Write the structure tokens for this entry.
Amino acid sequence: MKLFPFQKYSIVIKKGSLNALTELRKQTVSSEHYVSNWDNQSFIGIINTTDFEIALSRKLYGCFCVLKCKLENQNGILEITIHKTYKLIFIAFTLFAILGFLISLLNNGFENSSQLLFQTLLFVIVLRFVIIELGFRIIFKKGLHKLIEIIGIETIKKLDKNS
């Protein structure tokens, strides 16, 4: 099991990749520019001639999932991951919880810190399997539906995560 969720898809587009990327470019704000209001565009990110890396353009939760795709003619590989910033935040929360337990263990001994062990483990499990997993599933589905609508994905097939 991986620490962070990851999805990989094989896609086929109705139009050619050039037309699809043109349509996507119309609905995307470049992440290279500072823009205070992203809400009038669907995505924010970078779109090149054969690939793109985008995220939803919603404040707070929009950049949680990053959609990366490499297109060749009408076929492409789409990868959906959690943004690096959110990964660092979740790792920091986990390390703070573990560090807090270890400090309590060193100061108070195991007898006084045994209740904190259960709470620390419960915090890490809830963080990973509830907050990260549910957030990833909800936000990546929103982003995937918008992407399907904008670039006209004809078929989408989930690939093995190792391929």
Summary: The radius of gyration is 20 Å.
